[in-house]
Amino acid sequence: MRETDPFTVICLRFGIGILVLAAATARRGDFNLPARSDVLRFAALGAIGITLHQLLQVTGLITAQASTTSWIITATPLAMAVVGWIVLGERLGGRQALGIALGAAGVLVVVSGGRPGALVIGGAGTTGDVLVAASTITWALFSVYSRRGLQRSPAASMLLYVMAAGWLFAAIPWVLSGQLSAVGRLTSAGWVSIVFLGVCCSGLAYAYWYDALRVLPTAHVGSLLYLEPVVTVMVAAVVLKEPITVASIAGGAVIVGGVWVATRAGH
After folding, report:
1. If we measure between CA atoms, which residue out of 238, 172, 234, 202 comes closest to residue 7?
2. How many CB atoms are located within 10 Å of the residue 85 CB?
3. Which of 13, 14, 100, 245 is surrounded by the most beta carbons within 10 Å?
4. Which helix or strand (DSSP H or E) is residue 49 part of?
5. Are 225 and 76 a contacting pair, CB within 8 Å?
6. Whole-angstrom Cα distance, residue 147 to residue 158?
7. How confident is the model at residue 45 (pLDDT cuts 50, 70, 90)?
8. Rounded CA gap, 39 and 36, in Å?
């Protein structure tokens, strides 16, 4: 993001991701043409989980710290629980409601840098923090509706079509707006980052996520996001020299505690 714009990052990384997924799909022998009834579903999933979700996160990272972003994303399982309650009519018990409240409080602490009251008067938090928080909802919608489709379609081929649709929704306005020239501004370090995002974060990570959703409950898969902020905080401190603040750790602990309470309900 230091070298180019969000659309260029999204189009390049998912262009690479599609190639990785196509190779994985061919190797698994999972390539199936989608049923006509699934075409619109896959297109909608691509728009939500690829185009919109990534646009929120990548744009958010312009002003939000990577470590702060990771703590906010840890609240995604709580967003999944709320979306499941609203969209699928899944039961939301008292313990889950408590966990969601705790998680929301933790997000406020992280975003505000330990001063939640300052958010009311605009004295803390960034636009990027708000965009990243909104991305937890798009990912929850993406995961809940993907699980329905995975009951009928192989994970690899379904994800390939979903990612291709999401890439098209981003690539068409990118090309029409004349942003192709932005590719030439990338340095060798920028290309290393793009390739890493494309191969590891778009190709492999999305494939692993779909494989997990196919065999495990959504809440269980979501709870594994607990590990993300731990890794991100360490990497951001080393690579980006981001400070590890008390507010970030304390708020993150509250978020993880809230997710644990919510996902343990009924166990």
Report:
1. 172
2. 15
3. 14
4. none
5. yes
6. 11
7. very high
8. 5
Instruction: State how far the Cα of 243 lies from the Cα of 196, in Å rounded to an integer.
Output: 24
C-alpha 7/C-alpha 51 separation (Å) is: 9
Residue 110 confidence (pLDDT) above 80:
no
Rounded to whole angstroms, the Cα distance separating 116 from 109 reads 6
The pair phi, psi for residue 125, each rounded to 5°, is: 80, 165
Spatial distance between the Cα atoms of 82 and 92, rounded to a whole number of angstroms: 8
How many of the other CB atoms lie within 10 Å of CB of 72? 28
Asked if 4 and 190 count as a contact pair (C-beta separation under 8 A), the reply is yes
Region 15-42 average pLDDT: 84
Query: What tokens were used for 121?
Result: 């008067």
Model pTM score: 0.73
Q: Compute the average pLDDT of residues 56-83.
A: 79
* pLDDT single digits (tens) 140-150: 899 888 877 77
Residue type present at position 80: M
User: What are the tens digits of pLDDT across the range 122-142?
Assistant: 445 578 888 888 898 998 899
**pLDDT tens, position by position, 245-261:** 777 778 778 877 877 77
